[in-house]
User: What shape does this take?
Amino acid sequence: MSREAINPELLEILVCPICKQKIELKGEELVCVNCGRHYPIINGIPNLIPWEAKSG
Assistant: This one.
């Protein structure tokens, strides 16, 4: 998944469902800047389901 595959405007409004802080694209997944949880991107769609996140 490349940075261009996710709309930058979408990245601006996404927040972590656990701590409500900003999420950044890092490599192939989204990472919360506060709690460090890693959320997968599946078929180009950010998957922000808390129980599917990896702790960071």
